[in-house]
Amino acid sequence: VLRATLQADRPQSGIQLILVALSDRTEQVALDRMRSDFIVNASHELRTPLASLIGFIETLQGPAADDAPARIRFLAIMAGQAARMRRLIDNLLSLSRIQMHEHERPSGRVAPGELLLRIADEHEPQLVAAGVVLTIEIDDDLPQLVADADQLAQVLQNLLDNALKYAGRPGRQGQVMLAAHAARVGLDPSSNGPSPNGVVLVVEDDGLGIAPHHVPRLTERFYRVETAGPPKSGSGLGLAIVKHIVGRHGGRLTIEGRPGQGARFSVWLPAAPRPER
Ligand code: ADP
């Protein structure tokens, strides 16, 4: 508005400037709102385990001071709550680091098949604990990706952690599938021609899937779906992290809820140009 007033001697451009100033303001209000929602949500998520820790400390200092079996049990619960707080803080820091560098394109080279196998190996103890059968499909001769290896590993870790959490249905052994296929994605909007070569990484489970109305909101920070049965651990930040990393790599995340069949997450990433001969 101030800028518009300064231009008052040029009435036509003045009107344009008022509109620009108003839309700037609307954007600013939306940003402020997002920031304060974020702080409220983050504080709430941290307060819950903290309240439980304080409760147990008070019990151990008072009524349970001389109760050895209770002390062992309470300390185990407290360790779990402290670990939950640490996970949440690690995820918050990771998200803010990724957002800070969001506009810098990654420059490393990553072989997607090798990365997939490494992440599967690292998850072996969790696979065994969850009693899940893992299938892996990797195309021959996949191109390399221009990527930040640590961030891409984090994408696969977060998706695989979720798949292991939600795989299987009552009375059936869970199944998870990991795949890396060569793929093109739609048309390249900038050239209207075929899109560049790429690789699609797929993480699929055979759990209950996700109802369609939740799917568009899953990558929002702290968005979690209440499910029947025992609550699953998690911070609600895993998919927000995935979305930001994929965005930074110029890729695309597709979520198929497939209720009753199990969710499928596909990450398409552009291939590095082949070296000239
Ligand atoms: P969390 O730390 O809660 O897992 P995410 O951002 O990774 O956070 O996931 C957000 C929500 O998406 C989860 O709470 C869960 O409700 C849903 N979700 C994610 N992956 C799956 C899956 N493979 N099957 C069913 N629901 C899923």
Search tags:
about 280 residues; alpha+beta; five-stranded mixed β-sheet; two-stranded antiparallel sheet; phosphorelay sensor kinase activity; transferase
Structure description:
This protein is an alpha+beta fold and about 280 residues long. Helices cover about 50% and strands about 15% of the residues. The chain has 7 helices and 7 strands. The chain has a 5-stranded mixed β-sheet with strand order 2-4-5-7-6. A two-stranded antiparallel sheet has the order 1-3. A hairpin with a 7-residue loop joins strand 6 (about 250-255) and strand 7. Helix 3 packs parallel to helix 7 (about 240-250) and helix 6 runs antiparallel to helix 7 (about 240-250). The chain is globular and about 75 Å long. The chain starts with a helix and ends in a 7-residue tail after the last strand. The site of adenosine-5'-diphosphate has 19 residues, from helix 6 and helix 7. Adenosine-5'-diphosphate binds near residues 162, 163 and 240. It catalyses: ATP + protein L-histidine = ADP + protein N-phospho-L-histidine. GO terms for molecular function: ATP binding; phosphorelay response regulator activity; phosphorelay sensor kinase activity; protein kinase activator activity. It comes from Lichenicola cladoniae. Keywords: ATP-binding, Kinase, Nucleotide-binding, Phosphoprotein, Transferase, Two-component regulatory system. Its EC number is 2.7.13.3.
